[in-house]
Design brief:
- There is one protein chain.
- The protein has a domain of 35 residues: Erythroid Transcription Factor GATA-1, Chain A (2-Layer Sandwich), CATH 3.30.50.
- Helix content is 22%, strand content 0%.
């Protein structure tokens, strides 16, 4: 399958994208948002921790790349 199979054909209408914050149509200048305000709202949500990427439990994070045992040269 070619990488550009999902591109619209000539004359085919492209579906309107919606802002993930307010659901209005997006503006090219602020894409994927409709305005600077919605872009700022999204940034604020990331900075205050409303959005978060799940992390591994603490016991797994302490093991590091070598697992539970340390290499002999430490």
């Amino acid at each position: 399958m070619a990488a550009n199979d999902n591109k619209p054909k000539a004359g085919e209408k492209i579906p309107a994208l919606k802002c993930p914050i307010c659901r209005r149509a997006t503006e090219e200048k602020f894409r994927p948002f409709c305005s600077q305000r919605c872009a700022d709202v999204d940034l604020s949500r990331w900075l205050t921790g409303v959005y978060a990427v799940p992390a591994a439990p603490d016991d797994e994070a302490d093991e590091g790349e070598f697992g539970a045992e340390r290499p002999a040269d430490f």
